[in-house]
Structure formats: structure tokens, C-alpha cells
Amino acid sequence: MPTQAGGPDCEGLIHHVTSVPFAEQVPFPPGIHQTELSWSRRKAAMRLRLTQCEHESCAVNEEEWLVKEMNGKMEFLHADTVTGRFLLRGKTRIIHNGGHTKAQFWKPEEVRSLDLLPVNAASEDIRIPSALADPALAYPPGVRVELDPYGGVSYEGDCLLPDSHWRTCFRRAKGDWRTRNERTGDLFHVAGYTPGGILNLNWQDGGSHIFHDGPIYLGEDLNVLFIDPDEMRDA
Question: CA 147: distance to chain centroid?
Fold first, then answer.
């Protein structure tokens, strides 16, 4: 089950989206851009900032957009290990509905997350059987769930994990990353996130975390690669 609105984050703190209505914001520039995504602790909402724009008229690093809901896919570029901010690439549209603001995303058409999988990880023996399969039962060899859920899951690198609702977690005090399977509660300590994956955002539960719906690949370097679930189904 997804984390409930206002639920504790990975450090036990409470963060939830503000109930204050947002005024209508300027339109997001059309086209494919690099966008920084982060949680605004001051405004209690997700924040988008342009960091690179294909139009000369864009106000890079000057304008910001605050949203209460996100949906769609973006190419993942970078995770900042100091601030916990994500850098993404793709198209963005800001949708206003009264005081409720939503960000709709589209990934660049030419980017494929499966192209970054090693040959052994893409083999049929650990192919994800179904989006409806129990994620805990679909773990490949090399992944062992600990009895203590707070201790994290014991795993070896180079494993493809099932289509699920994955929560990314940045612990600001320690500057490290964890990824949690929200359907099972299993927590994976990870080194970070691999550039070039497809982040399938489905965030509307009112919390301060960024979620990925789909499979993930844990590399030998213990970095997470976000996999587009539609690519897996079409493979």
C-alpha cells in the first residue's frame, strides 16, 4: 500500500502537502527540458525548477512551480547527495484545478531504460512475470528479506526487482539513500540512482517522497536503475 498522507518519512519526521490553495502559476515552457524536482519544506509542496531549457527565452533557475500532484514519466539524470534533489529530463505541463496544481510529465521518446540493463539481468530466467504478481514472491535469487524490517533487505548487486510501488528516501542527516517496496515494506539500502532510467512518477498521496511505479534494477555498484514498466511488458 502507498504511504498515507502525512505519514512519517525515513527519519520519522512528518511532512504532508499544504492545504493552502495555490494561485495559478505561469505555464511551463513547451518542449523537452532539464528540470529539478524537490520537496519544498517552506511551501510544503513538490517544487519544479528549470535548470536547462531549449528556448533562449526561458528563465533558467529563476522560476519555480509548486504542485500537489504528479503523474507521468521522465528520464532520470541525477540525484544530489547533499540536497536530495532529483534532476529529470522531459516535457512538463502544469494543470490548475482551482487551488490544486498538478504536474503532468512525458519522457523523451528516444530514451529506453531497458537499453541500460546488462545482458544477464535482462535474461528470461529473472524476467518479471506480471505486474499483478506478489512483489515479495517475485524477488530473484540473491535477495533475502530480513526478519527485522528496519534492518533492510540483504541483497547482492545485479538483480532485477519486480514491478511495484517504490519509494525513494534521502536521509539528509546521513546523506544516504534507501529505496522501499511500499507493497511489502521491504527496505533496500542503496548507493544512489543510475542516470538514464525512466522514472514513472505516480505521486498523489500527500507525502514528501518521490515514488516510482514499475520494476527497478539494482546494479553491482548498488545503484538503482528505474525501469519503464511499459518497456518490460512489450519486451
Answer: 26
Which residue, 128, 131, 158, 133, is CA-closest to 143? 158
- pLDDT given for residue 17 in this prediction: 86
In DSSP terms, which residues pair with 102 in a beta bridge?
69, 95
pTM: 0.84
**135-190 tens-digit pLDDT:** 666 677 677 766 445 567 877 778 888 889 999 988 877 778 989 888 888 888 89
Mean of the per-residue pLDDT values of the chain: 81
Phi-psi domain of 131 (left: phi exceeds 0; alpha: psi -120 through 50; beta: other):
alpha
Look at the block and give the residue holding cell 544516504. Answer: 176
Q: Is the pLDDT assigned to residue 61 strictly greater than 80?
A: no
Cα–Cα dist 190/146, whole Å: 16
Strands 100-106 and 69-79: parallel
- The per-residue pLDDT for 7 is 38
Which residue, 94, 95, 78, 74, is CA-closest to 86? 78
Burial of residue 217, with CB atoms counted within 10 A of its CB: 0-12 exposed, 13-18 middle, 19 or more buried: buried
Residue 85 cell numbers, joined: 534533489
Q: Which of 88, 91, 81 is nearest to 32 (CA)?
A: 91
